[in-house]
Amino acid sequence: MYLTMFQGEYGIQSANLCIPVHPITVLLMLPALIANWKQPRRKQILIVFCGYVPAVEIQN
Q: What are the pLDDT digits (tens) for 2-27?
C-alpha cells in the first residue's frame, strides 16, 4: 500500500529530497559533534550519528 502523495501525475519524487538531504545532514552532524565534544551531549550525538548512517545505507 502506497501513500497517495507518492502516486499520480503530481506525485512526490522522494529521491529529489533524499539525495541532497542525507549528505547535508552528515556534514552538519560532524561540526555539531566537534562543537559538543567536551559536553555530555556528545554521547547523544554519537548515538544518533551511528544510527543514522547505517539506516541511510540500508535505505539506499
A: 666 667 777 777 777 778 888 899 89
